[in-house]
Design brief:
This protein has no helices and four strands. The chain has 79 residues and is mainly β.
Amino acid sequence: DPAQGTPGLSLDGAHAGCRVDAHSFDAQDNAGAGWTVPGRTGGTDGALVVTLPGSLHMGPQALSVCQGATISVHLATST
């Protein structure tokens, strides 16, 4: 979701010198099937763990300060 970060990514505060544009994310769609997140039950929101191997990349232009950074990928949802 590019509205939540640039370009849909954000870095932890401890790595402020690392530029987010040195990273990229390859969108995946589960072979066109998407994923279904369970609905809310009582007071507990539904959750789904999704593993997206090989989808996050650090480019060669990334500075050494990027090592060990926690990168958040902001995923968009649709109904």
